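[Discussion] Sanity-checking designs against the backbone

I'm trying to build intuition for which residues belong where. Below is a structure token string of 508 positions. I'd appreciate it if someone posts a full sequence so I can compare it with mine line by line.
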């Protein structure tokens, strides 16, 4: 008996090819639509940016600030504030806490290598450590490591040299290689910026008297002001705040807010988030009971904040509050994550559709990114908290907020996508949607570390659900946004102080 299957097979092949053609046509249509959206976004960016700027600098009526969406509603889940700090840590107790965090604060990194140049162990200051790891993985680095590994191959006993890493602010290191027993070498890298002349601490010319900067994106000049610049003025400690009194007034609980421009921002000294929070806490606890100092610096990151931590402790705080992380993620880490992508992922991300809707999927694995965040930004923050506890000061971390967009906020999404590329080093690959996923991962990583280490965690992002009327760009806020942010943070601080029994409500 003869089976006549030929026509049936041809029919199935025909159906399969037809479906494939339709899928290709559908994909090309999506690509065309996304390309059109990108084209429109490019053309509309300047006008939308101007409109967003108007939201920042206009005078907002009180009744507009007092809208329902700006009210703070405590999260339904229990908030863990960690345990009260112990007494000042001294002597042998301090050494037993974690000497590796002490190395981070001193700007030191140690690495152990075998005679083949394989990395056996490393710990300490994360900026130079990650540079070494990138070199070993064949990535871009700036530590002149080839000199060091040539010395290992030559069997040299010791080697000393210097290198410079520049990510907004140059960091100079003295590197020492020495034999550490049979078949092992030890590398010690030490931050020597405090021994360098001022000219060496700038990536360009030293700012003149018209500039507020002593070191760009690192430290402002003290008592700086200009007649034509009423927005930015600095105090006796070089921060954007009113003069700070030392010793602090008796009975005053002093909070020092640290971070980048998302801490420092505001149209005047009194409209920054720390000063707004201070006024709201005064309404609850009474005038002068709680002081909130703005110690934010535009463009800084946790690497520079850590290096300046003694400046914050010098203000005699009871609590140091960190809100930030975006400068680490975008201006420092993005470039390394993108360089780590295999070629096929970079090629795939040329697609408007894949980049627009599945960009996070093509990033390095989430577990890799989380570990990277823990080994860099959160290592800096852990070291700072460790140092604060040694001085009897508590430190709390805030989660980081971003705009929440509705499905029909197409114009805002277009604006944020271009903003990611042009301002936040997204390189046309990391768009706003991917940034939001990365920020969620950043917050979740921090929350897990805080829970593990008993660090007070303030869930700002978890309570912040607002869009382009509250955010000028992906992270900076309009007065509407600062109203909601300060409602949240003042509410969290109030709960923290009351639970700790530190500041009691006035009688009556």
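Best answer:
Here's mine. Compare freely.
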């Amino acid at each position: 008996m003869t089976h006549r299957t030929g026509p049936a097979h041809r029919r199935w092949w025909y159906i399969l090819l037809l479906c494939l053609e339709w899928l290709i046509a559908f994909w090309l249509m999506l690509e065309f639509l996304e390309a059109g959206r990108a084209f429109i976004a490019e053309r509309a960016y300047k006008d939308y940016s101007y409109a967003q700027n108007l939201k920042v600098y206009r005078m907002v009526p009180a009744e507009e600030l007092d809208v329902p969406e700006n009210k703070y509603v405590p999260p339904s889940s229990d908030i863990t504030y960690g345990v009260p700090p112990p007494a000042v840590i001294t002597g042998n107790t301090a050494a037993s806490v974690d000497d590796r965090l002490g190395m981070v604060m001193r700007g030191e990194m140690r690495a152990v290598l075998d005679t083949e140049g394989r990395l056996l162990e490393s710990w300490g200051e994360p900026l130079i450590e990650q540079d070494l790891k990138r070199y070993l993985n064949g990535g871009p680095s700036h530590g002149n490591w080839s000199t060091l590994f040539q010395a290992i191959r030559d069997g040299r006993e010791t080697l000393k040299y210097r290198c410079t890493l520049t990510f907004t602010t140059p960091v100079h290191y003295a590197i020492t290689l020495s034999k550490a027993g049979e078949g092992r070498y030890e590398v010690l890298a030490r931050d020597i910026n405090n021994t360098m002349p001022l000219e060496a601490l700038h990536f360009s010319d030293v700012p003149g008297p018209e500039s507020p900067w002593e070191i760009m994106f690192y430290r402002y000049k003290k008592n700086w002001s200009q007649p034509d610049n009423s927005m930015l003025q600095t105090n006796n400690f070089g921060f954007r705040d009113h003069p700070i009194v030392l010793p602090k007034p008796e009975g005053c609980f002093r909070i020092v807010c640290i971070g980048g421009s998302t801490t420092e921002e505001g149209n005047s000294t009194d409209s920054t988030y720390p000063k707004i929070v201070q006024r709201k806490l005064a309404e609850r606890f009474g005038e002068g009971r709680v002081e909130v100092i703005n110690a934010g610096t535009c463009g800084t990151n946790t690497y520079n904040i850590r290096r300046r931590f003694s400046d914050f402790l010098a203000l005699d705080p009871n609590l140091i509050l960190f809100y930030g992380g975006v400068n680490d993620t975008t201006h420092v880490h993005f470039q390394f994550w993108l360089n780590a992508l295999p070629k096929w992922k970079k090629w795939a991300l040329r697609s408007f559709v894949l980049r627009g809707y599945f960009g996070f999927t093509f990033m390095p694995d989430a577990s890799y990114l989380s570990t990277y965040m823990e080994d860099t930004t959160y290592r800096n923050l852990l070291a700072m908290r460790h140092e604060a506890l040694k001085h009897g000061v508590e430190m709390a971390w805030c989660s980081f907020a971003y705009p929440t967009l509705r499905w029909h906020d197409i114009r805002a999404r277009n604006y944020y996508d271009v903003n990611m590329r042009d301002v936040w080093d997204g390189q046309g690959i990391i768009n706003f949607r991917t940034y939001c996923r990365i920020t969620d991962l950043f917050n979740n990583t921090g929350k897990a570390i805080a829970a593990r280490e008993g660090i007070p965690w303030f869930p700002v992002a978890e309570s912040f659900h607002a869009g382009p009327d509250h955010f000028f760009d992906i992270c900076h806020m309009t007065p509407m946004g600062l109203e909601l942010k300060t409602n949240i943070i003042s509410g969290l601080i109030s709960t923290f102080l009351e639970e700790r029994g530190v500041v009691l409500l006035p009688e009556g």
